Amino acid sequence: MSDLPKYYFRVRENGAAVFRVDTENRHKRLDMEQIAVLNIRNGEVKPQGQKVLTERDLAEIHTWMAARKETLARRDIDDIYRAVDHLNLTTQWAQARATEEQLEEVTDALLFAMHDLRTMLVRKKADRMLKARATEG
Question: Can you say how many angstroms the Cα of residue 89 is from the centroid of all Cα atoms in its chain?
C-alpha cells in the first residue's frame, strides 16, 4: 500500500472534499482523514474543523485545483463539439425522419434557442474583430 497517493479528492459540486491518506498506522489499514473542503470557482480552501493545513497540504490542493480547472475546461469544449454534432444530427432527423407532429412540437423551441445562440455568437465575433482591428492599428 505504500504507493498510494498521500491525498484523495472527493469531487463535489464546485470543488472537492480533501482527505489525507494514511497507510502507516498501527492497524495497517487505509485511513482517510478529511482535512479541507475547497471551492474551485472562488479558490477558497476551508480547513476541516480545527485542522491546520501544512504547506505540503496547500501545495497538493492548489496543484489538484489547477489540474481540475483544466479538466473542466476541456470537458466544456468537448461538450460544445458534441452539441455541434447533435445539431447536425437534429438537422438530419428534421429533414429525413421527423413527422409533422414532431416538427410542430419542437420547431419553436429550436428556433428560439438557435436564434439566441446565433445572436450571441455574432455579437461576440464582432467584438473580437473590433478588438483585433484596434490592436493592429
Answer: 25
CA separation, residue 126 to residues 9, 112, 130 (Å): 41, 21, 6
The pTM of the full predicted model, rounded to 2 decimals, is 0.75
15: left (phi over 0), alpha (psi -120 to 50) or beta: left
On whether the CB atoms of residues 21 and 5 are closer than 8 A, the answer is yes
Residue from 43, 42, 36 nearest 62 by CA: 43
> How does residue 21 score in pLDDT terms, banded at 50, 70 and 90?
very high
Write out pLDDT tens, residues 82-123: 999 999 999 999 999 999 999 999 999 999 999 999 999 999
Residue 67 phi, psi (nearest 5): -65, -40
CA distances from 60 to 7, 17, 31 (A): 8, 13, 18
Assess contact for 40 and 65: CB atoms under 8 A: yes
